[in-house]
Amino acid sequence: MDLQAAHGGAAARGSRLSLESVLAGAAGSTSVIDRLDTASVLASASASGSGPGLVLVGVGPGDPELCTVAAVRAIQAAEVVAYPVARLEAEGMAARIASPWLRPQQRRLPLVFPMVAEAAPRRLAWRQAAEALALEVAAGRRVVLLCEGDVSLFASASYVLLALLEHHPDCPLRLIPGITAASAAAAAGAWPLALQRQTLQVLPTPDDPAELEALLEAAMACPEGQRPVLALLKLGARWSWVRPLLEHLGLLEDALFARHVGWPEQLVAPAAAVPSEGEGASAYFSLLLIRCGWPQVLPEIPPGLG
Fold first, then answer.
1. For a pLDDT cut of 90, what percent of the chain falls above it?
2. Is the pTM of this model over 0.70?
């Protein structure tokens, strides 16, 4: 199914900020997002003819200010705000990120995505979430599904999307990408992610040390100047053995550790400065950026980067 053909007009119909308003927001003391008036957003949505539908919205890694203008507009124009939770009484991290942009009159729709290894409960949850969202749209409502980070990268929203395309192909929907934790960590650490002919490999941290060692050795075997950068997500307690492995392979000094990116408790630091054990070292929401080499054509590399 061609999403662009089916839903491509939705983004074009949405309201846009002018260049003048962006520049005014950048020059003034108030950010552009702060200037988004709820009434004007809703009026704009109505005037543009945007009817009921579903928008999958990436809200970024944690800081509400990292929500895109498109994300804020979609959230504020929605009548129903859906978001994933591990259990019904939980708050939901995506909803917490988006909370500054929510309105009291919006109906909240928590969708349970159980944190279990078994396939059957997860498949059932994705199907039930798709059914609930499709019912809301069929009832004539504008709905958003919030997703931490980006909607297409290791995202719960992706499973819901696949279920919708299979069982509700006529449900009008569009996707708004969000800033990833890896991108946010690199920006916070002033750490270029990839340059020239380098590749960027984004993957969950392997559970097996031998698997990661083989991955790193393969990266180091690439031609000089083309060695990749690895972004290891969901690092967590694996840091206790990942750090010694990086040190053994001579990669520790060229790695960046990040924890709770975008949240008040954020830590972004050279990996060599983060002990393998201790408070916060094994936090689930941690990641690692590993530079396996630099391209040959570069300005002088600042101390501490290479």
1. 67
2. yes
